[in-house]
Amino acid sequence: MRTPFLCLVVTLPAMPVAAQTVVYQGALNCEAAPSANVQASNARATVTREGNQVTFERPIYNQQTRTIIGREAGSAQLTGGRFVIQTEGNFAGASMRGRYEGTLTNTEVQLTGTRQWTLRSGIGNQTCSGRCRPQPG
Description:
Layout (H helix, E strand, L loop, with lengths): L20 E10 L10 E10 L2 E9 L6 E10 L4 E10 L2 E11 L4 E11 L2 E13 L3
Antiparallel strand pairs: 1-2, 1-8, 2-3, 3-4, 5-6, 6-7, 7-8
């Protein structure tokens, strides 16, 4: 006598996966902006990806003392591995606005763009580029 065999397959709806946060760090190199008396700079930069949201942050340094006097920051949506991010920073009565285009992969972020300084000494534009690598979790 055969015993009947019953097979039951249960499928559950897919549960949303929490967005993984990946932090990339590197440097942003910017040319001098002589019209505003701004020197060329090489400052650390942090790009954070959480799902399709990308945030950018870098410190703003006093040119003479190298102390941090402010932050440049912005966020954007990641679409097809690319993003355009608008940034701003305000410090000691001055301001800075940036616009960077970037690509983001699992192994690096590349940025190129410009930023405009509005200082007591004048207004100047800098061309910048940088690369960041993912940091261990």
